[in-house]
């Protein structure tokens, strides 16, 4: 994005320079009363040009720093290769304005480490449209000739119809691994600190938090962690549904059932049951219904007793939600629909003043360009809706929070709602999508093992706490099955139980493409083979134990990282080294598409690549008879360490908490 801005400014500079040139040339100006005006204009333009030049040169400098001199940051090798190839491609085909740039890791190692396929795309699509016909191999050759001096590429060669296979320099890969070991896992450089709002979890007060909210909670937490690691300023918002007409009947029922609720907290143990009772009365008792409506009005006019009742009900719900958050270690700030109550009035007014509101059978509706469904901003009874509160929330996030990125994590069923809200906000001029990123990150439904909507056997919705407790039970069964209870202390055992149970539930969700529906299966997620948290957690403890069993302490490893080279002569060492260094490009991809399963796939690939390495490269050599350590291959210990460091960071972003022993 910053690159786009930079290009625009370049263009602006050029046109401004041209304008200034023409102003400098006295022949171009016939003596007229406009002369002074133009001179004035000229000074202003010069001033603006200087500012732009300064900004551009700063950006240029920063760009340089961001790639070649990464400081403590990890280098994004793919991005750096794109820069290098981008330069070569532009030099090879200056007639193309926006040449296709495609660099990706090579799947088959024997063909090289990365591959650039731009020549093919240029020959097939881009150049013919310009009336040119060139063989892609010829273009590829030109690109290779034009490669600028760089620190990364050992050699680049053409293969097949015009692929370019890229071989990385061993020395730089080794150096980058040493940097990683010395500096720890540092995020790639960030051009400027940006603010992100992540709206997630967001259950509804007085209703049960369901599996859809569980998905939102897990995905939103992980996205927030990713942005935090990358250096963004993250605001995690729980947009709870706490301001609907249902509160009228809840409060009316509260008044009857616990008449002294103003002075002592009523023991509403089961809010669900309480909700059901009040709903039943609402449907059956005419008087009750009338009173419920009056309660809504009195609540909305903020009468203290009604606010008190409303707060009580919210508190009971909050305590329930918190239990889930505590288990899953979720950090989130509640800012529910009620928070936007006053702002909704202003928002509706703004739409009305701009002539964007239509009346429809007493409702006030807003049509946004390209959207067939309107938003209902005011109901016929004068009340506001989910649409109104989301408009107000978006306004607040844009103008008060001043967020650069706003993400909503809910089920895909709400995609249209958000699409219309975003379109309406753009229509009224609140934001420009080229500048501010506002996005709905939708996800599919949770299915049971029968591939039907996730339900209990009796057909009820599954209570989240029950689900988490079952996870705990199952994970303990697994640990006992492996007789871990005989090796671990009771404390270690409980820690391992929680880590496995909650880690597995999160990982099962995150490792599937969020767009798809996903089948919830404890058996699958707790299996310690395959792409599961159970497997990865075990793999991680095993890697961590290699150094411990060889009696190498942290200080020794740190010293080794500084003094000894990470050798990469063995094919499996080379493969592992490169895999470790792909971490920044994985993060970059997720930043673009917000699909976290890529991180899980990468983590799994890293663990299996490590196993391949460990199976064929001795790290510690022991005497067969005595079992005594006879030789330590320190550079391999460093590869173990670097793998573990990246794995730990992946777990951290996924919200999974590995334990020392399990
Ligand atoms: N409370 C809503 C639900 O349970 C989700 C809210 C999502 N966030 C938002 N800003 N609309 O479906």
Describe how the helices and strands are arranged:
Blueprint: H1 2-24, H2 34-67, H3 77-92, E1 103-105, E2 114-116, H4 118-129, H5 136-145, E3 153-159, E4 163-168, H6 170-183, E5 195-199, H7 211-229, E6 233-238, H8 246-257, H9 271-284, H10 286-300, H11 304-328, E7 333-334, H12 341-353, E8 357-360, E9 363-366, E10 375-378, H13 386-400, E11 405-411, H14 415-427, E12 437-443, E13 446-447, H15 464-481, H16 490-510, E14 518-519, H17 522-525, H18 533-549, H19 554-563, H20 571-581, H21 583-593, H22 597-616, E15 620-622, E16 629-632, H23 634-654
Parallel strand pairs: 5-6, 5-11, 6-7, 11-12, 13-14
Antiparallel strand pairs: 1-2, 2-4, 3-4, 8-9, 9-10, 15-16
Helix pairs in contact: 1-2, 3-5, 4-5, 6-20, 6-23, 8-9, 8-10, 8-11, 9-10, 12-13, 13-14, 15-16, 18-23, 20-22, 20-23, 22-23
The protein binds arginine.
Morphology call: flat
**Which spans of ≥5 residues are poorly predicted at pLDDT below 50?**
1-13, 20-31, 58-69
Please name the fourth-level CATH homologous superfamily of the largest domain. Isoleucyl-tRNA Synthetase, Domain 1
- Bound molecule kinds, no repeats: arginine
Largest sheet: 5 strands, parallel
The CATH topology annotation of the largest domain reads as Isoleucyl-tRNA Synthetase, Domain 1
- Compute the number of helices: 23
Tally of discrete structural domains = 5
Q: What is the topology, as strand order, of the major beta sheet?
A: 7-6-5-11-12
Report the end-to-end length measured between terminal Cα atoms.
44 Å
Pfam families: Arg_tRNA_synt_N, DALR_1, tRNA-synt_1d
Family: Belongs to the class-I aminoacyl-tRNA synthetase family.
Keywords: Aminoacyl-tRNA synthetase, ATP-binding, Cytoplasm, Ligase, Nucleotide-binding, Protein biosynthesis
GO molecular function: arginine-tRNA ligase activity; ATP binding
